[in-house]
Specification:
alpha/beta, Rossmann fold, 6-stranded mixed sheet, 4-stranded antiparallel sheet
């Protein structure tokens, strides 16, 4: 579960104020809204990369507002993927578990299972250069999942993919959500993508004069 309670964020020279919403455990939620309205900043605040001015962020009912990113048990896949060019696919998947001090044998077992689930086992000893867009997306997703997070945050994860690869990736994301029971918050501008994935669709808007955040449920039917 992800819950924001009256959160205020400072973004450049303005603020989003009094933002409140929740994503239930196991739910796949999609967040939509105009470009520049603050959607990425919300994800960054949940995973601890952006400090909040006020309010509370809860993960599975625990207040993590002041916690470091490493302690929040949040998997985050940024829009640019942020893959390391000098690391192999295997090293990407091992990165978070090693930081958390997971034993080597457990890491190997976990990476093997995750690579099989994501269908990237043949890529484990390859470098990042030369991977297709779809392969890179799966590696970034695997890295986000490798530490067994409680929640998963996805920032436009499918925007750079061709139509065929995007449809396959949508099916993979929904299957992971259902099989792992993990709460997902996914940013997209695509109503088609949202309709294919979302249990709940949220729309973020901001009143220009007051910078008061307004978030509401959307119907995609």
């Amino acid at each position: 579960m992800i819950e924001l309670q009256n959160v205020t964020l400072r973004i450049g020279n303005w603020q989003i104020r009094n933002l409140s919403f929740a994503v239930r455990g196991g739910e796949y939620a999609v967040l939509m809204g105009r470009t520049g309205v603050g959607k990425t900043s919300i994800l960054e605040s949940i995973c601890g990369l952006r400090r909040v001015v006020s309010g509370r962020i809860l993960i599975k009912t625990v207040d993590v507002t002041s916690w470091s990113p490493a302690d929040r048990k949040v998997g985050y896949m940024p829009q640019d993927l942020a893959l390391f060019p000098t690391m192999t696919v295997r090293q990407h998947l091992e990165f978070a578990p090693r930081i958390h001090g997971v034993a080597g044998k457990i890491i190997r077992e976990r990476i093997s299972q995750l690579a099989e689930l994501l269908e990237i086992s043949p890529l484990l000893d390859r470098g990042i250069r030369g991977l297709s867009g779809g392969e890179s997306q799966r590696v970034a997703l695997g890295r986000a999942l490798a530490a067994e997070p409680l929640v998963l945050l996805l920032d436009e994860p499918l925007s750079a993919l061709d139509e065929t690869t995007r449809v396959a990736a949508q099916k993979l994301l929904k299957r992971l959500n259902q099989e792992m029971g993990i709460a997902v918050l996914h940013i997209t501008h695509s109503r088609e993508e949202a309709a294919a994935l979302a249990d709940t669709c949220l729309e973020l808007d901001v009143v220009q004069d007051s910078r008061q955040a307004v978030i509401r449920s959307m119907s995609l039917r």
